[in-house]
Structures are given as C-alpha cells and as structure tokens.
Amino acid sequence: MMSLHTQPWSIAGKTFQSRLFVGTGKFASPELMKSTLACCGTELVTVALRRADLSGLDDPSADILNFIDPQVFQIIPNTSGAMNAEEAVRLARLGVAAGLPKWVKLEIHPDPRYLLPDPIETLKATEMLVKEGFIVLPYMNADPVLAKRLEEAGAATVMPLAAPIGSNRGLETRGQLEIIIEQSKIPVIIDAGLGAPSHAAAAMEMGADAVLINTAIAIASDPRRMARAFAVAVEAGRAAYELGLPQIRRQASATSPLTGFLAD
Amino acid sequence: MSFLEVFNRLPEEHSPRLRRFSAMLDSSFNLEELAQEAEQLTRQNFGKTMRLFAPLYLSNECVNVCKYCGFSRDNPILRVTLALDQVEAESRYLVAEGFRNILLVAGEHPKFVSEKYLEDCIERIHPFVPSVSLEVGPMETEEYIPLVQAGAEGLVVYQETYDRAAYAELHVAGPKKNFDWRLACPERAYAAGFRRIGIGALFGLSDWRREALALAAHAEYLLKHCWKSSLTISFPRLRPAAGEFEPRVVLSDRELVRMICAFRVSFPQIGLVLSTREPAALRDGLIPLGVTLMSAGSHTEPGGYTRVGQEKLHRTEKGKMVPLIDSEGEFATEQFAISDQRSAGVMVAKLKELGFDPVWKDWDGALGGV
Fold first, then answer.
1. Residue B112 in contact with residue B81, Cβ under 8 Å?
2. Distance (Å, whole) CA A139 – CA B317
3. Which is it for the CA torsion B161, B162, B165, B168, positive or negative?
4. Phi-psi category of residue B329: left, alpha or beta, with phi > 0 → left and psi -120 to 50 → alpha
C-alpha cells in the first residue's frame, strides 16, 4: 500500500515515524500482543509496571516484557495502579532498576473504576521524576491549564484523555483537547477512550501529534487487523491535518457572490 | 453514616440501579440477552484476561459456633495453626505453581490467630508474594493498620447472610453473632488503608434474591463511600462440610449464572470472584460471562499444599483441645470440600484454550502500604 508520507515527530529528541502508540493490556495472549505490535508499524509501546517482573529474577509468572523487543520498540513503562505521586515514583524507579528505559508514562488514578487521573498527584510526580532525569509522559484529564502546568514542570509530552480508559466513547472532550493542542509546546498524545479508527482519524485531523490505543485493538475479534485499521486511520488523519482541511460550511457557496458588484 | 443505616431502610429504598438489578434477577428477564451483555461488558472492561489467586489456610481454630461451617467450634475436627516456616513453605509452593496473589485465610481465634501472628505471616511472605490479601475474623480499624503496613493490600469479609433472622439463628455463639459489626467491617478495612475489598454472601442460608439485592446495595454503597478501593464480589454456594449442615435454599446453576450476569451488567467495572467450590464445567462456562478472578487447585485445610502442620495437630471436642496420640497420616480438617479439583496448570491450559490470558501478577509490592 502506498504510504502517505506524514512528517516524522519526536519526543525528548527521539524521532518516530509512527504516530500510533499501543498499550499491551487486555490481550488474549502475549503471543497475540506481540504479533499485533509487529504488524501495525507502531514504534511506541506502553507496559504496566505492576504486571512486569521487577524482581530481576526473570519471573515466569510476569514475563510480559519478554514479548516486546526493545530494539524494535520504544518501551514506555507505565505506573498504572499507583494511587499517589510517591507510589508512582517508587514504581518508576523500580522499572529503571529492572533495566527498563528511563521513560515513564505517568498514570495516577486513585479511583480504580473509571481510572481517571489525579491532577494534583500527577503534577507532583512529574516534578519529582523530571528532577531525577526521567522522560515523563503524563496521562491527564483534558484540562488545558493542567497541560501548561505539566509542560512547565518539564513533561516531555502531555497525554490527555478523549474519554475514560476502555470506554470506546471517542472524542468526548473535543473542545478542551482543541485548546490543549492550540497552546501546547510539547507533543499532545490523545490517550484513552478512542474506540474506532474514525475516532483516531478525527483526533489526528484536529492536530494531535499521536494517539494511544489499547482496548479497541486488544479486544477486537482480530486484533492484528484492527491494529492495522487504526494505523491507516492515524496516517490518514495526520496527512489530512498536514495538507489542511477545507473549512466546513453551513450553506452551499453562492454562485453570484454578494460582492460581485465590486470591480476587481 | 455507614452502610448499616442504608441497609436498615432496605428494601423500601432502592436506587434506579438496584431496581434494574432486581428485575434482572427475575426469571422472566431474558437470560441469554443478559449473558450477552455481561460478556461484552466484561471484555470491554477487563479484556481477554483472567486473574488468578490461591487461598492459603493458616489456621482452622475458631471460637465461633456457626451451624453451616466446617470450622465451627463444636465440630470435633482435627485442627492446627501453621508455624511461620510452614506458612512460608505453603507460600513457596503456591509461588512455584505460578501464583503471585495469595489470600491468607484463618478461623477466628484470638489466641491462635492473633493480630501479631497475622502481621508476622504477612511480613514473612510479602517479600516474594507481590499481592497478599486476608480473610480472617473482623477487626477494628486500628488493628488492621499494622497489617496494611506489613504489606496486606486486600481484605475479604463475607456477611454470610444479609437476612438478620437467619443470621441470628445460624450464628449460635462467639463474636460473629454481632451482625452489625460484621456489616461495617469493609468500611473499617477501607479506613485502615486496604486497597482491595472483597464482599460476598454465602448462598444456601436464605432467599437468594434477597441476598443478592442486599449484596448489590452493599456494593453500591461502598462504591460511593470507599471510592478508592477496588471492590470484588463473591458468590460462594454452600458445600458439604463437617457438621453436615443442609442448605436451606438451593441456588441452581441457572440462577447463579443469572445473578453473576446481573452483577456484571449493574457494576461493569467490579471484580467478580469464582472459587473452586463450583464444578469444573460450570466454571468453564462462566469464564467469559463476568468472572474476573479465579482460584485453582485450592486446599481449604491448613498445610494442605505441602502436607505440613502435623506436629501440633489436635482434635477439639466441644472446644476443648485433645492431643492426638499418633498424628501419623492425619491432617487438619478442611473447611469444606472443593468441587473443581483441577490443578493450577490444568486450569491455565483451559483458560488459554478458551482464549484467555491467565494473569498471575497484576500488582507490585511497591504499591500500597500506609
């Protein structure tokens, strides 16, 4: 298939071609997760530290990292399960001690049901981890002021949600996301809630730098094909954004313009 | 404000969610449609995964007299409380089987199962078991705090029956007689810092629909008031045990499935637990329908996995300890007979065959603590 040749982009100086982040939870098997990652062209993969082996003992009951080649993918450990900044920082450090890259997708959600991110603890943890030299990608609610505060605290990107994790509800926070994208100096990755390739395409058309998809791919009847579908949608949306979309009009353009009386 | 106040107003005051839940329990509600919705919601919220855990019985000593329980004080059974080395041996066996989530279970006995003993058990195994939970006699918040600090992250406490009259009649003697104190236990556990709270009812003691509705009301209350806790619900059905208690109400397989699906549809993000009390074929059928946490290869007697604990084995007669002259070939008595006898390995193979990723570790010891 012909590529649309969208622009490469970068996080903290590292360049990527793919704008599709993929999460690794909820798959029917690690083998299926591995082959799904391989066939959608993604370069950025996030893994929950609480599911990984942090003991250094090569634990066979926690071998998810054995299925992700760090030579091929930028692995971004996430702190899912952390309830506050201290726990997130502790997990992030353990990840590094276990040999993982010093990148962290910060997820701090005290509410285990909707998994909505705690803004106060997220800002606090960002400050702490940036000081320690981490490349921090915070998951956040679609709050433009918080996005700027995280940027000022040294976050490498912001990752605002479109809708709650796993909800597949699409761009429910669209208006706020538009403000975040307009104001941000760092990449904006729309994370969580995107349930269909059309949602991902719309996010990219809005000017998001990338999207993160997990549930919609992992629980699809064929995750590999669904991942490809998302990859194509992300590329299409990005190409349209780069080319510039025509303005949406409420009426048909008049064939006899009102200003036709003006000479030249 | 505690759940007790809400409970005392049931069943007159039901929320819209509980009214829908109640309708789903009625046999006129289409079960197949309910099952389809439950399946879809479970996949969306939990993916194609199944978390696994194992119970580890520390002690079958108990001061309570409960008519339905194998550990009831007056049952003349073989009892033991495991020594710390034995607790470690049992844990290491379970870890070798693959488990990273262990539920420590014990009867209620202040002398044998003291707070200090539980704290020591947790401290001993937490370094190599990422997730440790407890199912022990209810305690005060202040008593729970050291257990959370020692590394326990979950607390399971079943009300057994939400029917006050039945509760009073079945719990003949001992601290467990106090219905209200037990009912408020999950809130005390939350206040102490437990991250995962498990509730449930023992089906077979009273009308199952009323039990289910009270359990749902309890869950709804905890979601609002203990919003940071990860809640799980269990639906144990009575199993044969010492004492030969006969279930007063039979919850059929079909009704159990209906109830589990109704819980899933009403509470999409809550964990639902299914133990080895249930037969293999039923467990396999329920795997896609809402269940998110399963045990496998379980033993319900202290020392059951590695055959330890014989040195201090003794018989009790009406609560009085009678030493065994010869414990050779004798083991502690189980709480109840499990039904699904499959080993963890066989269960894992079955899950994979059905298209589910068995998740052993979904928690890290770095999380939690106070």
1. yes
2. 60
3. positive
4. left
Mean pLDDT of A189-193: 94
Reported confidence tier of residue A255, pLDDT bands at 50, 70, 90: low
What digits encode the pLDDT tens for the residues B101-157? 999 999 999 999 999 999 999 999 999 999 999 999 999 999 999 999 999 999 999
Q: Which of A62, A94, A112 sits opposite B230 (nearest CB)?
A: A112
Contacts of A26 in chain B (CB under 8 A): 46-49
Mean pLDDT, rounded, for B60-77: 91
> Is B327 a residue whose pLDDT tops 80?
no
B11 pLDDT higher than 80: no
Interface check for A50 against chain B (CB to CB < 8 A): the answer is yes
| Whole-number average pLDDT of chain B | 92
Q: Which of B44, B227, B363 sits opposite A219 (nearest CB)?
A: B44
* Contact check, Cβ <8 Å, B228/A83: yes
Q: Say if residue B331's pLDDT is above 90.
A: no
Asked if B357 reaches chain A (Cβ–Cβ under 8 Å), the answer is yes
The answer to whether ipTM exceeds 0.90 is: no
Give me the sheet containing B320-323, strands edge to edge: B78-79, B314-317, B320-323
Q: Report CA dihedral (A18, A21, A24, A30) to the nearest 10 degrees.
A: -10
Q: Which residue has the higher pLDDT, B140 or B370?
A: B140
**Among B97, B229, B357, which would you mutate to test the A interface (most chain A Cβ atoms within 10 Å of its Cβ)?**
B357
Residue B231 has a CB neighbour count (10 Å cut-off) of: 22
Amino acid symbol at B218: H
DSSP state for residue B233 in the 8-state scheme: E
Determine the angle formed by the axes of helices A144-152 and A119-131, rounding to 10 degrees: 20
Q: Which of A110, A111, A219 faces B43 most closely, judged by CB atoms? A: A219
Q: Specify the DSSP class assigned to residue B367.
A: S
What gap in Å lies between CA A150 and CA A88, rounded to an integer? 16
Q: Which of A26, A34, A105, A124 is catalytic?
A: A105
What integer pLDDT is reported at residue A253 of this predicted model? 67
Report the DSSP beta bridge partners of residue B295. B53
CB pairs under 8 A between A and B: 87
What pLDDT is stored for residue A63 in this prediction? 84
On whether the CB atoms of residues B226 and B197 are closer than 8 A, the answer is yes
DSSP bridge pairs for B230: B196
Is the CB of residue B127 less than 8 Å away from at least one CB of chain A?
Answer: no
